[in-house]
Amino acid sequence: MTISGVCGSTRGKCMNVLVTTTQLVPALAKVLLYGLGDVFPIENIYSATKIGKESCFERIVSRFGKKVTYVVIGDGRDEEFAAKQHNMPFWRISNHGDLVSLHQALELDFL
């Protein structure tokens, strides 16, 4: 699963975008089951099952534009590769400590 953060000129205009290799309906079910519907609105959930993560990233950039800040958060090489292809920073999450570090980086406006 890949989580892409999309931010405008101020942190208050941030939104979360989910890119997953899970098919769309099961992905939506998981988001709702885990109570993440407020974090990931349905229009911000992309399935890379048939088109790949790079194509999803292209669609996201096409939708939100190039004048925003993107941060790709994930645990796999495909997310990292897609992020690099689009010149987006990548934050690897392997354990809880990585999430804590991400939170601190966001709080300090490093990303």
From TrEMBL:
Cofactor binding remark: Binds 1 Mg(2+) ion per subunit.
Name of the protein this chain belongs to: Eyes absent homolog
EC class (word): hydrolase
EC nos: 3.1.3.48
PANTHER family hit by this protein: EYES ABSENT (PTHR10190), EYES ABSENT HOMOLOG 3 (PTHR10190:SF5)
Gene name per UniProt: LOC104968005
Membership in a protein family: Belongs to the HAD-like hydrolase superfamily. EYA family.
Binding site for Mg(2+): D75
Catalytic activity: O-phospho-L-tyrosyl-[protein] + H2O = L-tyrosyl-[protein] + phosphate
Cofactor(s) named in the record: Mg(2+)
GO MF terms, alphabetically ordered: metal ion binding; protein tyrosine phosphatase activity
One of the record's GO cellular component terms: nucleus
Biological process terms in GO annotation: cell differentiation; negative regulation of extrinsic apoptotic signaling pathway in absence of ligand; positive regulation of DNA repair
Gene3D superfamilies: 3.40.50.12350
Keyword line: Hydrolase, Magnesium, Metal-binding, Protein phosphatase, Transcription, Transcription regulation
Species for this entry: Notothenia coriiceps
Keyword Cell wall biogenesis/degradation appears in the UniProt entry: no
